[in-house]
Write a structure and sequence with these properties.
The complex is a heterodimer of chains A (about 120) and B (about 120). Chain A is mainly beta and about 120 residues long. In chain A, about 0% of the residues lie in helices and about 50% in strands. In chain A, strands 2, 5, 6, 10, 11 and 12 form a six-stranded mixed beta sheet that branches. In chain A, strands 3-9-8-7 form a four-stranded antiparallel beta sheet, with no helix packed on it. A two-stranded antiparallel sheet of chain A has the order 1-4. Chain A is globular, with a radius of gyration of 14 Å. In chain B, the strands form two sheets. In chain B, strands 2, 4, 5, 6, 9, 10 and 11 form a seven-stranded mixed beta sheet that branches. A four-stranded antiparallel beta sheet of chain B has the order 1-3-8-7, with no helix packed on it. Chain B contains no helices and eleven strands. Chain B is mainly beta and about 120 residues long. Chain B is globular. In chain B, a hairpin with a 5-residue loop joins strand 4 and strand 5. The chains are: A mainly beta (about 120), B mainly beta (about 120). Chains A and B meet through strand 5, strand 6 and strand 11 of A and strand 4, strand 5, strand 9 and strand 10 of B.
Chain lengths: ~120, ~120
């Protein structure tokens, strides 16, 4: 079974508009961490935002926010005021368990294209 | 501070040949991970070092893959002999035992391996 599901292979958004990228996860652990990474065409993986399973508030980092709905096991990424430079692949990842050194499980990614 | 570096950035070899990929983690990071993304599929975990010890190698596909981490610093991933299905992008990541963001992994730019 897929541990991380990203149901949108591709998304388009108009510049300056907001966009939500979906991520659902599956784990039986009580302690886990959720991460979003951006991969532009240059190939590097850029960390965007983190949500811990015990964090009560949704994480925010500048234009990025994470809509964390624990009961539904979803951790959607919201990008506000999209910019052309936001065009990239976006990966949702999970670290299961309370061991911070545990490896990540990745979703298949969503390719976001920002239109001028 | 230098990020995670990987060498080479690209490698094209013929089936049956040997290739060695190198990763230099961020200085002081005890955790080092190898991941792989085969064309069109998810990024998959290969193995995890803590210092020079293999913590988890459950993702290694078969015994044609050998990873080492000399003295707990850089790591190499050798594929011998390479097969067509080994083509993909190999990512290395490193993390601190206790970082500002729990479990955040810093990724290298990847090595794109093409087996002909």
């Amino acid at each position: 079974a897929q541990k991380i599901t990203q149901t949108q292979p591709g998304m388009f958004v108009q510049e300056k508009e907001a966009v939500t990228l979906d991520c659902t996860y599956d784990t039986s652990d009580q302690s886990y961490g959720l991460f979003w990474y951006k991969q532009p065409s240059s190939g590097e993986m850029i960390f965007l935002i983190y949500q811990g399973s015990y964090d009560e508030q949704n994480a925010t980092e500048g234009r990025y926010s994470l809509n964390f709905q624990k009961a539904r096991k979803s951790a959607n990424l919201v990008i506000s005021a999209s910019q052309l430079g936001d065009s990239a692949m976006y990966f949702c990842a999970m670290r299961e368990g309370g061991n911070y050194g545990q490896n990540f499980v990745f979703g298949p990614g969503t390719r976001l294209s920002v239109l001028p | 501070e230098a990020g995670v570096t990987q060498f080479p950035s690209h490698s094209v070899i013929e089936k049956g040949q040997t290739v060695t990929l190198r990763c230099d983690p961020i200085s002081g990071h005890d955790n080092l991970y190898w991941y792989r993304r085969v064309m069109g599929k998810e990024i998959k975990f290969l193995l995890h070092f803590v210092k020079e010890s293999k913590q988890d190698e459950s993702g290694m596909p078969n015994n044609r893959f050998l990873a080492e981490r000399t003295g707990g610093t850089y790591s190499t991933l050798k594929v011998q002999p390479a097969e067509l299905e080994d083509s993909g992008v190999y990512f290395c990541a490193s993390s601190e035992l206790l970082g500002q963001v729990p479990g955040e992994q810093f990724f290298g730019p990847g090595t794109r391996l093409t087996v002909l």
